[in-house]
Amino acid sequence: MSDRGLTHLDPLGRARMVDVTPKEVTHRRAIARARVYMQTETSSLVARGAISKGDVLAVARVAGIQAAKRAPDLIPLCHPLLVGSVFINFRIEDRFIEVEAQVETVDRTGVEMEALTAASVAALTIYDMCKSSDRSMVIGDVTLWEKTGGRSGLYRRDPLEPLGADALPGDFDGSLVATLDPDLDADLDADLAGDEPEELEA
User: How many CA atoms, within 13 angstroms, populate the side-chain half-sphere of residue 34?
Assistant: First the structure.
């Protein structure tokens, strides 16, 4: 974990855009992945090109490429930069489709956010294309898998490192608050139970 702290905050705790002008222009690459979990029948329809809206993966690929170029418009403190290339690939399994986005540039800052945005929007597009067949789909595991270039150099995620809820401490039951502090939910329930409305006098 980096010891540089939160670089998007100034000494007074206000949001700021990090000054990248002193940095060297270098070749940078980032790879991000996301998954769309779905019913087996839905992934089969996608693989066969039988979704009524059309070619799911072709549309999702274009959406991911567009999204990589629009990341600074969506994320306030993300630097506009020259996106040199975007590759979007897919892996179809029985219960999910995995999106992989690879973005490259030659610039003063990295393209992690562009890759993560591309993977996310491609996954959202898969959901949109398939929702008439399967509204129970779940988008998850949006993760940076690799980055190169810049002062921090190479980062590559350990493929054995858990994703999603498995990466959180303790047992995840759908409540992030309960996961971080199991006593908080119990205290809140007790407070609510004891907060009965006062009866109005006649």
Answer: 24
Q: What does the pLDDT look like over 110-167, one tens digit per residue?
A: 999 999 999 999 999 999 999 999 999 999 999 999 999 988 889 999 988 887 766 6
Q: What is the DSSP string of 3-17?
A: SS--TTB-TTS-B--
- Compute the C-alpha angle 73/75/76, nearest 5°: 85
pLDDT, tens digit, for every residue of 61-105? 999 999 999 999 999 989 999 999 999 999 999 999 999 999 999
> Which residue blocks in 26-160 are alpha helix, DSSP H?
40-48, 56-69, 71-74, 112-130
* CATH architecture for segment(s) 26-161: 2-Layer Sandwich (3.30)
Q: Which pTM value belongs to this model?
A: 0.77
Q: Which residue in 3, 94, 128, 141 is the catalytic one?
A: 128
Can 128 be counted among the known catalytic residues? yes
* Contact present, 39 and 98 (Cβ < 8 Å): no
Burial class of residue 147 in the structure, from the number of CB atoms within 10 Å of its CB (0-12 exposed, 13-18 middle, 19+ buried)? buried
Q: Where are the domains of the chain?
A: 26-161
69: nearest Cα among 85, 48, 49, 51: 85
